[in-house]
Amino acid sequence: MLKTKSDVVRQPLPFSTFSPSQPGRVYLLPACFAVRGEMAWNAYHLSHKIRLSISSFRTANSLHAFPNSSTTAFPLRCSAFYPIKSSNSRSLSASTTAAAVTTPTTFSWEDVDRASQPEFNPHDSADLRGFFDKIKACNRGSELQSQFLPFVIEDQIVGYIHRSFAENLRSFQNVFVVSKDNCDGGQVTLHRMLKSAEDRTRAVGEVIKCLAEKELIPGIRNELYPVTLLFGAPVFFSLERAAAPYFGIKAYGVHMNGYVEKDGQKFLWIGKRSPVKPTFPGMLDHLVAGGLSHGIACGENLMKECEEEAGIPRSLSSRAIPVGAVSYSDIDGHRFKRDVLFCYDLKLPEGFIPNNQDGEVESFKLIPVRHVANVIKRTHFFKSNCNIVIIDFLFRHGYITPEYFGYLDLLQSLKSGDCS
Questions:
Q1: Which residues belong to any copy of the Nudix hydrolase domain (predicted)?
Q2: Residue 263 and which of 74, 155, 215, 340 are 20 to 30 A apart at CA?
Q3: How many whole angstroms from its chain centre is CA 221?
Q4: pLDDT surpasses 50 at 52
C-alpha cells in the first residue's frame, strides 16, 4: 500500500452550487474541509465507484484574467463573475452534468479566466479531487443496472434497455420481441425474420421515427451509429444516434486536443459551444470532437470534423496523432450511455486561428494547459465527457504525476466503461 501522510490538510475545489435564496443563479464557490492521515488517501480510492465528499463552502476571491491567452474574433457575452446565471435555474452539479443539457448556461470567457488563475485557490495545486468529481459525473447509476434488460442479437448482448422503455417496444411485434421475466430476468431481441443488417436497420428505423413522434426519443440527428459487439467487429445493424443511449449500445467518438507550444509553455485551444446547440449549449468543448458514424474510419472522421468545427485544413489535420482511448458508463433515467472516445493530439502552429464552419461553436480561446486544468477542477464549465479526454492529456503530458494522492486510481478511472 502507498504511504499516507499523517497530517494532511487540503483545500478542495471551487464548486458550482445553487442558491435557494436567489433561484435562477448559480454561484461558483470553493469548498474547504480538512482531511487527516488515512482519510486523505481514502478520499481518492476507487472501487469501480468514485466517491467524493465536499462538506462546506466559502466565498471565493475575485482575480485577474490570465495573460498570454488569445481569443478568436467572435462576439463574447461578458458578465460579472459572481454570480453566474443559469437559464434553467438549476445547479450544474455532478448529478446533472453528464446528461444532455438542453438550455444554455451563461458564463463568459472572463469567468473562465478568473476561475483558472492559480491564486483563485492556491491550495488545490496538488489536489485531484476536482478531477475525480468530473469522472464521477460521467459514471453515474451503476447501482441501477438491474433496471435494464439485455438487448440481444444473434445470442450476443449488444446493449441494455430500461424495463419501462422496453414496454414502448411491445406494440412493434414485427420488429421487437420483449420476453417476459423468467429465471434470467428477461431480454429484448429482434424478430427472427429480420436477418440482414439492412432489414434490421430499416425496421428499427421506422420504430425510432414513431417513438420520436411521441417524444420518447428527442433530438433525432439522422445519423446512424453501428450496433456491434466490439469495435471493428461485424455490424449487426445501424441505429439512429439519438436512440443509442435508449438501447444502451456502445457508441464511439473522436476527440482531439489541439495545442500550441510557445515560450516553453503549452496552450490548448478551447471552444465554447453555440448557445442554440441542442446538447450542452454554451459550455466549453474541445477544439474538435464528433461521434463516429457507421461506415467512416476514425482518422477520416477526425479530418472531416476538423474542417467543419475549426476550419483546420487536411494538410494540418492529417498530422493528428492517435494517443489512445477513454471510456465511461452513465445511467440517467432510461438512458444508458456506454461510450468510448478515441483521443488525438494535434500540435498547431503558433499563428493558427480556428474558424468554425458549421455554426456549432460560438468562439475559441487559447488557454495555458495548467489553467485549463484549473477550470476542470474548479468549475462545471466543460461538456462532461471533454473533462475525461483533457485529464488524459494532462497525464500524458506530465501535468499529473505519481506524486499526487490517488494518481493510479484516477488513471484507471479514465476507462471506467467497457473500453472495447
A1: 251-392
A2: 74
A3: 19
A4: no
CB-based contact 166:357 (threshold 8 Å): no
pLDDT tens profile 370-399: 999 999 999 999 999 999 999 999 999 999
Cβ neighbors of 23 (< 8 A, separation 6 or more) are: 89
Tell me if 85 sits within 8 A of 24, measured CB to CB: yes
53-to-4, 14, 56, 67, 420 alpha-carbon distances in Å = 19, 13, 10, 33, 31
Q: Are the C-beta atoms of residues 339 and 331 closer than 8 Å to each other?
A: no
Contacts of residue 275, Cβ cutoff 8 Å, sequence gap at least 6: 104, 281, 282, 362
Q: Are 29 and 59 in contact (CB under 8 A)?
A: yes
Q: What is the DSSP string of 303-346?
A: HHHHHHHH---HHHHTT-EEEEEEEEEEEETTEEEEEEEEEEEE
Joined grid coordinates for residue 154: 444473434
Beta bridge partners of 190: 176
Of 214, 162, 131, which is closest to residue 411 (Cα–Cα)?
Answer: 131
pLDDT at position 127: 84
pLDDT digits (tens, 9 = 90+) for 221-245: 999 999 999 999 999 999 999 999 9
